[in-house]
Each structure stands twice: as C-alpha cells, then as structure tokens.
Amino acid sequence: MGKWRYGVILDAGSSGTRVHIYRWLNSARAQHDASAFELQSLPKLETKKKWTKKINPGVSTFGDHPSDVGPDHLQALLDHALEHIPEKQVEDTPIFLMATAGMRLLEPPKQKALLGEICSYAHKHTKFSLPDCGLHIQVIPGETEGLYGWIAANYLLGGFDAPDKHEHGKGHHTYGFLDMGGASAQIAFAPNATEAAKHANDLKLLRMRTMNGKASDYKVFTTTWLGFGVNQARQRYIQALNDESFTHDAEELLDPCLPSGLRTTLEGVEIEPGTKTGAEPVLLGTGRFDECLRKTYPLLDKDAPCKDQPCLLHGQHVPAIDFEVNHFVGVSEYWHTTHEVFEMARKDKAYDFTTYQRLVKDFCSEEWDDIEVGVASSKWGKKVDAKTAQEVCFKASWLISVLHDGIGIPRVGIEKSAHALSSNGTKDATAIAKDGGFLDPFQAVDKIDGVEVSWTLGKMVMYAAGQIPPASQLDFPVGFGSNIIPEGAVIPADFQEAGSNSNPVPIGDDESFTEVVEELASEAQEHSRGTPGLFLFMLILIMIGYIFRKRERRNRFVRGISSTIRRNRKPGSPRKKNGGFFGAGKFFGRGSGSYERVQEDVEAANEFELGDVEQDDTEASDSSEGSRLGRSSGLATPKVSVSAFESNSYYSDSPVIGLGLNNFPNAMNRSGLVVRTESRERLHTLGVGKPSGGKRSRAGSPTRMKSPLMSPLEEG
C-alpha cells in the first residue's frame, strides 16, 4: 500500500453529477511528519483538477427507469475514479453518492428505488469500500449540505486551525456560509455566544478530531429553503407575472427582468423575430431593473407566519445574526452571478452593493441586440454565452433580494445604522468591514488558495478526521447531530457518524514505485513546456534518489547485482575484498547494520515495537464513546467541560511519535525496549537460535495501527 488514503464522493445535483477525488496521508505517516502546529490542526486533503469530472443530466432524471442509472450514468464516473486511484488501494477507498435538491423533489418511492439501484450497481461493478448503503448512498437534507459547506469554507479559510489569526471579536473565529443552487439555498453559521445560548436547541453539534487525536466541538445553525434556488425562484416569478397580467387576449407579458427587446417563451427559450408562438403568451423584456427588484421582493415570502421568532425567509426560524462577528462567504450562484458577467475591477475584494447594483443596471438597460454583439465579441469573457446574458438580470435581482432584504447582509456604503445586534434586519458594516478579504460582511468566492469551495470537501474532511485514532479510548466519535443529548447518553440520539473506514493500511517504507513515477511524470509534464530537457533530467535524478534513499532498496539492488556477478564469475577467480562500490560499508551492505538503522530511523523503531504496547482496531476506531477532549471553537461555539480530563492533555510543542497512544510511554522513554527488541530481531535475522538462518519476513512483524491523516489541500 502507498502512503496515501483516498476518498471518492459523487455530488448528485439537479442538473448533473460530479465526481470528486480527495486524498490524504495515512495517520501514522502524517503524525510522524507533522509539526507542532499541524498536530493541533485538522488533517490536510489534496485534490487535483483532473480528478473531477461532471456528466449531465442529474440522477433524478432516472426516477422512472432506475435500472438505466448504472450503465448510462454511474459507469463513466466510476471509470474516471478508477483511472486516478492506485489499484491496490481501491478496496480501502470509500465511495459516497450524496444527492441534493433534484432528488429531494422526487417522490419517496422513486427515491428509494433509485438509491437501491445505485448501491447495487456500485457493489457489482467496483471494489470500492461500500459497507453501509444507507450511510454512503443517500439523499442529504439541505441542512446537512449547508453544514458540509460550512466545514469546507472554514477549513480552507483557516478558521479551524488558526483561530488567533481569524479573530472577529467576542471570541468568534469562524465564518458563515451561504450556498445557492438551482432548486434550494442554504445558510450555516455559528451564532454569537448570547444567541447560541438562547437558541441552543436549534443548533447542530459537530464533532471533529485534530491530528493529535483531540476532539473539537462546534455549535452551528444551518437551514435550507427549498424552492429558493435561482431556477425555482424564476419559475415562481413567471407564475406571478402570469397571474398578475395574463388575460385570454394577451399575447405578451412584459418582463422587467429581461434585457430590453428580448422575446422568450415562458420556459426561457429565445424567440426569433417572425416566429409563431401559438396560444401561449411570450415574455417581452423591458430592461427596467428597479422594477425587477420590486417584483422579486414578494418571492422572499417575508410576511409568512413565524412560529418561532426570529425568522428570515418563508417563516423559517433563524437565530439573530450578529454581523460584527458573522462574516459570510457565498458560493455557487452567489459567485457565478456576481462574477461571470459583472467581473469586479477588484475581484478579490469584498462584495460592494453600490458597485454591483450599478453594473447590473447598466447591463440590463442595454438593448438585447447590443448585448448579443457584446457576447459574440467576448466583451464579458469567454464563459458568457447568450443564455447566461439572458438570465443574469433576474438572477442578480434575486441575489440582491435574498442577500439584503432576506438575510440582512449590510449594504456596505449605503446604510448608516449603529453596530448593534441585527435582529435579522440590515445594518451598516462600513466600520467593521476590514481591508483583508474575508472579514467583510459578505464575500462571494469560488476557490480559496486554488481549491474549490464545495460541500463535498467538507464531507470528506469530516470523514478523514474520523480516521484519526482518538487520543483517549473514551473519546466521542466524529460526526454531527442535534445539540440535544438525552440524559445518560454521550451522543445525540440522531448523531450521524462520519462513516470512516478504520481498516489499517500498511505503510511500507513509502509510496509505491508506480505512484511516485506517476506523480513525477505528471508534475514534469505540467512544468516542462519551457525546458523539457531540464525537467526530464530532474525527473531521472529524483527517481534514482527515490530508489536508493532507503537502505532496504539499496540492499535489494546490491543483492541483485551480486547474484548476477556470482553467476557470471569464472570458476576459481578471486573475490574483491570489499566488493568495491557495492560492497559492505556505510552506504551499502551489512556494515551499516540494522542496529544503527533503528537508532537513526524513527519509522524503523516504530516497526520494532512490541505488540503488547499497541491498541487494537476496536480501540482505535472512532466508535468509542466517553468524555470529550480537546478544544472548542470559542464563544461562538461553546466548549463542553473537559476539566475531568485535563490531566490527559496531549498538546505538545514538538512532533510526537505514536499519537493517540498517550496511555503508553513515548518512543524516547521506550528506547531501551526498542534496542532490546531490535537486538533479538537482528539475532533472529542472522540465524542465531534458528536452524534455517533465514530472514524474518515483514509480515511477521507486529501489526501496527494505521488510520489516515492528510497533507495540504492543493488543487493541481
């Protein structure tokens, strides 16, 4: 097995399914190489652009013929994943398919049949780890999607790992998360301490685990609005226009949210001049953006009865948002609608309401014929086609309405109210908006440090955190559930564990040769356009260095050369005393000895530890229960008491070997035991006390506990 652990997740959305592949270092390797800071951080994931693939349409379109979803839809995605995951690690790689808004709209019987067919097909046609279909193949609620998105955003921004660098005031260091797709919209944030205490029963309890095995708890509010995505909102808008203006004699409905002069069907298909449309009325754009804003406002349903104050949209309860500490990032449609056409002059700066509204008004007041000319000449970029330009006025209006009239994001530079807590209203944030990117009330993002902000990342971060062995056998599992724990219980009744696969992975000396070559070749290809000869030479040197950097590899090479020489040597010819370059010595051969190797190679020392100081798989799994250790998110995410366990704290200023085994002495204290153990192993290897004098096989060494951690999340 290689040093990496992999995970595959399929995001089954309303318009298509996208496969994502993530990888991270296995726990033993990551803990061994981690710095003191990294030990107190979440595991680090990697992904690459080429590891992602999307196909259309969405899986929900197979609701009436579920047997076709495998060969016609899933197989292409599974094949893509198998192209990038080492064959030997497929069986240990979990696969998830999580469906969102599109599948939520299907009738329950169709959902069940489709999910069952997906699971059955994956079992039959792949060897991916799929132990529990109910956990791995599911339609996730919007609240769960929002929670995963919240994890991803804070993970990439550093809100989890470096709270001191993300201090927003009042002990708050996490960021709010907004997501909008075609069918639904989500919000997730950690309320301030006052609101968290007041609405404790409305929050989700999220439990993570850092690389040193310590638990981290967060209290997060998340909710969803089904029907409030841009496509569903547009359908409701057209219905409202129809109800308001349609008569049996009407042939056209005036639409202020379409560019002036554009004619389309009610479904949004452009109608060319002179085309007959039949009995159904058509939409005629007027390009009046102010009127468009007035007509989209009622779609927020702000007047709906609120049974649990306070509420935002559609009568749904949301704790009051303190914009002094709650700074939001928006993804998906929040990004596309603010950037695909209206690319800001300073796109890395915060969203600015005044600038954005001016750009939208200028665009939407143009004649459609002029807009078409601009699209053809790539005036707004190559990604903007006629369909995007046609829809952007309504989308921008809906976005502004949701952000400012719905959620209450301050209109920076417009409103001058005090900094008091907003009871889901709007207030000024000019004084508290910071120049540094994400400390503003709202910022639309697509990628952070080159990595896409996707809820799938949040799910896989949680999964990988669940693979870290807990620092205490009494530690809680990684996962999430309601913030209500029944009396006598240690986790909520609805707690959903991360589903982490805790099967040990043999580390070996390093990653597989094939894996190294593939990575080096990929990197060389990416950088070799200008100087191919230099990078080819560097690639060869790196490969040679990789082959010979471990003593075992050098010895295997020497043995192969030696056996060849012996076979080719003439009978009676003398042997050279030291074997020349490949003879015994410090670099090659026995002269270096296994004893010295144990002294200078910590990984080797770990291999020679006795089995009776190991934890078994059940002890290392994240299904163990008990009291929590570790840190919480601060005032905004109240901490569970850990006073009873302070004596077991494992934070350290230096890297520690064998993390998660803090009930036993560390490697330094076991040095005598390591040496004695190694000496017996060496005697055994040399044949003392063993008639055959054979070598001890690696399989005979004590089983070590291996469960994954991660390296920095980068997108290649």
Automatic annotation (TrEMBL):
GO molecular function, one term: ribonucleoside triphosphate phosphatase activity
Transmembrane portions of the chain: 530-548
Binding site for ATP: 182-186
InterPro entries: GDA1_CD39_NTPase (IPR000407)
Keyword Nucleotide-binding in annotation: yes
A Pfam cross-reference name: GDA1_CD39
Biased composition (Low complexity): 623-635
Stated family: Belongs to the GDA1/CD39 NTPase family.
Keywords: ATP-binding, Hydrolase, Membrane, Nucleotide-binding, Transmembrane, Transmembrane helix
Protein name: Nucleoside phosphatase family-domain-containing protein
Any one of the GO CC terms: Golgi apparatus
Keyword ATP-binding part of the UniProt annotation: yes
PROSITE patterns linked to this entry: GDA1_CD39_NTPASE (PS01238)
CDD domains xref list: ASKHA_NBD_YND1-like
Gene Ontology biological process terms in this record: CTP metabolic process; UDP catabolic process
Positions of the catalytic residues: 145
Listed Acidic residues bias regions: 607-622
Residues covered by region (Disordered): 607-637, 678-716
